[in-house]
Amino acid sequence: MAMNVGGGFNGGRRSRGAAPLSEINVTPFVDVALVLLIIFMITAHVMEYGVEVNVPKTKSVASSTKDLPVVLVTKTGEVYLNKDSININRLVDQVHTRFPGQQAVYVRADGEVTWEIVANVMSVLGAGKFDVRAVTQPDNGTGKKR
Length: 146
Description:
By secondary structure, this protein is of the alpha/beta class. The chain has a domain of 82 residues: Nucleotidyltransferase, domain 5 (2-Layer Sandwich). The chain has 3 helices and 9 strands. The strands form 3 sheets. A 5-stranded mixed beta sheet has the order 6-5-4-7-8, covered by helices on one side. The chain is elongated.
């Protein structure tokens, strides 16, 4: 902590020999850092998935809080393991490599993808002895009927 002890004023006048005291004020820096921290904490959940997938709506949705690997199927038929694009033939090996000991995976497929692609992904995961869980969202009566 810095302290100025030399009397800077002589009878109300500043002496010419005393240098001005220069200290760094860290209070604005700490304020900005805390504001940025709060912003990142609030927006962190928005950046959870990088691939946009519109999952189908169903009347009953089971809520789950388990942290499992996510296999994404886009409407163009591309398959992703979490955020990384992956070949369907290497899917089981990659899940075993990246997530050792996992027994289940989430399949998050776009509502507009053909059923054949989703069935193939689920079949490959089932053959790899994984418990496949489909990700859906609740239908509030405003969704499209198929």
